[in-house]
Design goal:
There is one protein chain. By secondary structure, this protein is α/β, with parallel strands linked by helices. The chain has helices at 46-54, 92-102, 107-120, 136-149, 166-183, 194-200, 234-256, and strands at 2-13, 19-30, 35-39, 61-67, 77-80, 154-158, 186-191, 203-207, 214-219. Strand 8 and strand 9 form a beta hairpin. It is globular. 38% of the residues are buried.
């Protein structure tokens, strides 16, 4: 499934009724089975754009189009949020089954599909645990399994590992790459971390400070499967340095804006 973002603009009113432009004329394409990272300074509209792709927000101008065959019973998109967004009264398996309930799948099929994604995300043995009994990394695995269980054509991820400690974050990045290798989902991944974007993605879209505009679309010339040792390779270092050169000034200016 390809994602085509075509000249998207988003304007909204702040609490004083003043017009604020969050996104301005944003265009890019995510190829089928591609892992794309959206990166930019704080407040550049990354999450707003992701919500537009998800259909949770309507653009003020332009549009987002999904190009490809969508089999019956499959969702076009599913979202993994920065906060774990799990129901505390549901077990891990019941949380994973939630989207399947919304799709109207019968209990036997829900359970079978949930178990499949429990195995995929390394949650075997934790099916009956409640969110408060799980670590942050385990809770985010539940969120990923819940999104994957509805078999979306496009997986959307909004800074899913930013609340985790550095070690857990690195492990979760590796697990996400392993899941991508096995499923080959089209993924749009929002992050503010340059190294994370380069490590995970095939393509990095760099946005300017508000209003978000596309500064560059950079291919990542690293072989797959990705391994931690690639972080020191010239292709990795060069991509990270180029991205930083693009957003350094943008980030500095964003800090000077009111409310930053």
């Amino acid at each position: 499934m390809r994602v085509i973002v075509d000249r998207v603009c988003k304007t909204y009113a702040d609490r004083h009724g003043h017009e604020v432009r969050a996104l301005d004329d944003v265009s890019f394409t995510v190829g089928s089975e591609e892992f794309l990272a959206l990166l930019g300074p704080s407040g550049c509209g990354k999450s707003t754009l992701l919500n537009i792709v998800a259909g949770l927000l309507t653009p003020s101008a332009g549009g987002v189009y999904l190009e490809g065959e969508l089999p019956p019973g499959r969702s076009a998109t599913a979202m993994v949020f920065q906060e774990f967004a799990l129901f505390p009264w549901r077990t891990a398996q019941a949380n994973i089954e939630f989207g399947l309930e919304e799709l109207g799948l019968p209990p036997v099929e829900r359970a079978a599909r949930a178990r499949e994604h429990i195995t995929l995300t390394g949650l075997a043995g934790f099916e009956t645990k409640y969110p408060h009994q799980l670590s942050g990394g385990m809770r985010q695995r539940v969120g990923i399994a819940r999104a994957l269980a509805v078999e979306p054509a496009v997986l959307l991820m909004d800074e899913p590992f930013s609340a985790l400690d550095a070690q857990t974050r690195q492990l979760m990045q590796e697990e996400l790459l392993a899941i991508w290798e096995r499923t080959r989902k089209t993924i749009v991944y929002v992050t503010h971390n340059i190294q994370e974007a380069v490590y995970l993605a095939d393509q990095v879209i760099v946005l300017s400070r508000r209003p978000g505009r596309v500064l560059a679309s950079l291919p990542v010339e690293l072989k797959r499967p990705r391994v931690e040792g690639m972080i020191g390779e010239p292709a990795f270092v060069g991509a990270a340095e180029r991205i930083w050169s693009l957003i350094k000034g943008e980030a500095r200016e964003a800090l000077r804006e009111p409310g930053a």
